[in-house]
Amino acid sequence: RITDLHPEGFSTFLKYIYSRGVNFVNILQALHTRAAAQKYMEPKLVKKCDDFINYGITTANVCIVLDYSLKHGNIDHFNGKIDGLVESSPGPVLKSQAFMAASRESVLQILKNPRLKIKEYDLIKHVYAWAVAHSKQEPDKPTIDTVKQTMRPFLPELHFLALTPQEFVDGPVSWKIMTHSETLAVLSNIINPGSEELPEFISKITRNRNGKPLKPEKATMTDTKVQTLCRHCHTWATYDRNTDPGHIKVWV
């Protein structure tokens, strides 16, 4: 009994042995077939698999190839193609079904890519969507604690300090992916760098991955009023610059 090869890959390999021809349905079949061809030393079939994979990698399936590479190895020569697609078209890659089905290791690999060109808030939203999808203990009802635990390995790779205060509140704060004290520390540093000691796992990087500077948020109040952390009770509040006796209204 063969246990180290995927049934579809081994079946396609056998058909090739008898017919000397092969027609792949999708890139995953080619990957599984390549493993069989490599094991039984059929270099011509390996090349046919490589050709199909090389020409067939797209933003829609690159995460499938990345998953396979990290799990099985032996396809390092595709790393350049994988990285190139992820770097040049991160949006379509992260929106793909293949990304949503990808392994945690693949998500981490993408996050560690230093040449990723994407707005940080968009990247964080995609990673959070992945965490929700992989945290469902019952249909459509993942618990907050489960999502928080699923997100934890990714937090050191995310540049929270590159977010605007509004983005951080709308995203990570509302999702409750960090503890209350961690959230306050990060938010305080977004507003006033160095004002609070950051948790050790938080990245100190403050630039967006797309290389664009942060745009100032549009004012929603008069110029004398600002939205920031209350220095007295440590809640997210509205301040009046002129009086500053305390906060005017808490709007968490």
UniProtKB/TrEMBL annotation:
Keywords: Isomerase. InterPro entries: SKP1/BTB/POZ_sf. Gene3D superfamilies: Potassium Channel Kv1.1, Chain A (3.30.710.10). This is Putative topoisomerase top1-interacting protein btbd1. It comes from the Eukaryota. The keyword Isomerase applies. One of its GO terms (cellular component) is cytosol. The keyword Acetylation does not apply. The lineage of its organism: Eukaryota, Metazoa, Ecdysozoa, Arthropoda, Chelicerata. One of its GO terms (biological process) is neurogenesis. GO terms for molecular function: isomerase activity. PANTHER family: AXUNDEAD, ISOFORM F, BTB/POZ DOMAIN-CONTAINING. Signal peptide: none annotated.
